[in-house]
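Protein in question quoted in full.
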Amino acid sequence: MRKIGKLVAAIAVATLVFANFASCSKKGESAKKTSKDVALKENPASDFSYTMTDDSQGVLIKKYIGSSPKIIIPATIEGLPVLEVENLADLDHEYGDLYWDYQSDDYRYHKNNVTITHISFPDSVRYTGNSNKVAMSLKDYDALEYIKFPAGIETHPATSFGDPLLDAVSGEQVLASSIPSVEGCDKLNKIIIPEGIKVLPNFQDCKTLKSITLPSTVEIIPDSCFSGCTNLEEIIIPETITKIIFDTKTFDEYWGKETIYNSFAFEGTHLNLATQAKLKQLGYNGKF
């Protein structure tokens, strides 16, 4: 009887220990989930200055006016879908790198943003930037670590100085989009490019970027897309992708001549040999 009593007691203790362990595990999982949810929680509508889009179909965000370093744009505001984003955070530093501005024919300073760490666009966004569909620039957001691009970004015929931009191989018209560019974001290491995106943005000089996964819908990689990404080692390319446009050309009717724009999209990277081989198979003939 004593042996049976000891056995029952041992089983009871083991059951109690297991229950406590399971409870702690669930609490740990819950804490992790909560932490993740808080990190990606949508900003309230009051964090944005916004108006109606020109076609009255949804919301145009004009500016981010919140204080959080995370800008998680909501999918809807006042019951309407967020369709366009004209601008985001103001830039904190009054002065940055000096550069020559050809439009003003004078020297100017790049302004840097040092506070925004996360940006997430809802898939409903079709345009970013100005009304001419010129992409928003997030250049030199030097605290940016994470960005999710909008799957619904629309495309339009690409031009160069008003002339149609063509595939250098097939001669077919190529596409452009107003997807935001993120060049010079030195801390950017997490990028989500959803299915549906056809034209990649510019990641030039994002020096902490090590790996990126392309969606199966990608058709065009711009000519300087990853140049200067000195730590980029791997690009995961779906097997369903059989062609990507790298080199483009235009025909200037005024001068009566054709100009070929050769790609240097991956120059200065440290891509592994498997990635290099895949890119060459898809038509890239530039440097690595």
Summary: The mean pLDDT is 84. DSSP finds two helices and 20 strands in the chain. The helical segments are 2-39, 273-281. Residues 137 and 181 are 5 Å apart (CA to CA).
